[in-house]
């Protein structure tokens, strides 16, 4: 049953994409912003107090909605429909593909200014002086990483814990995107959001990395995962991106500028730098991975029946 609901949710995402208006995460984000502005004052950004407030903030923002999702899922006749809607709201497969396609189209048309603008919607790094190769690399990296964050992670937690699992995962991922920075403002207050997101992504990220490997150059993907992932700052993005780079036979990683400062990032994968067409190849890899997961979910549910 859960596998069938997941299939319907993926189909709904493919048909409708992200809600253009009244997306529940928009309201949640505003609530999180208001709470952070009230609790994370300049005077409270140091040490234990800031971390404690960050822990309480994460609990207040995730526990009630997760519990409410569990209650709605338990309602006869309505619970299944809510499960589909909850996973649909947590997924971003079509949106990820649309962003990737916009960057690829601009690069293929040699419109570098538009390509920079479009990739700016996908990444947090500075894009104003990117060359075409830099834009393509940033887009491919974003597609591979967000394949887990926007798709596989939500699918995994939906299969494990139903609608409450998908809701908790998406809320934690949203808080990490908002607060999970090692800046002066969020170093302590955002600690709990970052750690919760790391914990929830630990298993799905490695399953996503394995999925990438199975759908491409498996030997190189597994080698890159084993030898390169540990050097990446994020414990979950490392395996996903290293495996994806290896399976696509691309050279990713390397220096990137964030908020005016250059960051030296390890190299990922082997091969040529990505071009415009490789952005589509990365998006196709994620899509094929999703259908592989859904097929396995369905077969597993049928065998257990």
UniProtKB/TrEMBL annotation:
Which residue stretches, if any, does this entry annotate as coiled coil? Answer: none
Source domain of life: Bacteria
How does the record say this protein sits in the membrane?
Multi-pass membrane protein
InterPro entries given for it? Cobalamin_biosynth_CobD/CbiB (IPR004485)
The transmembrane residues are 52-71, 150-172, 285-303
Q: Main localisation, per the record?
A: membrane
UniProt keywords (A-Z) are: Cell membrane, Cobalamin biosynthesis, Membrane, Transmembrane, Transmembrane helix
- What Pfam families does this protein's entry cite? CobD_Cbib (PF03186)
**Record pathway:** Cofactor biosynthesis; adenosylcobalamin biosynthesis
Q: Does the keyword Cell membrane apply?
A: yes
Q: Which GO terms describe its biological process?
A: cobalamin biosynthetic process
A Gene Ontology cellular-component term: plasma membrane
Q: Which GO terms describe its molecular function?
A: ABC-type vitamin B12 transporter activity; threonine-phosphate decarboxylase activity
State if tRNA processing is listed as a keyword.
no
Where can this protein be found? Cell membrane
Q: Which family does it belong to?
A: Belongs to the CobD/CbiB family.
Q: What does this protein do?
A: Converts cobyric acid to cobinamide by the addition of aminopropanol on the F carboxylic group.
From the Swiss-Prot or TrEMBL record, give the protein name. Answer: Cobalamin biosynthesis protein CobD
**From what organism does this protein derive?**
Methylocaldum marinum
Query: What gene is it encoded by?
Result: cobD
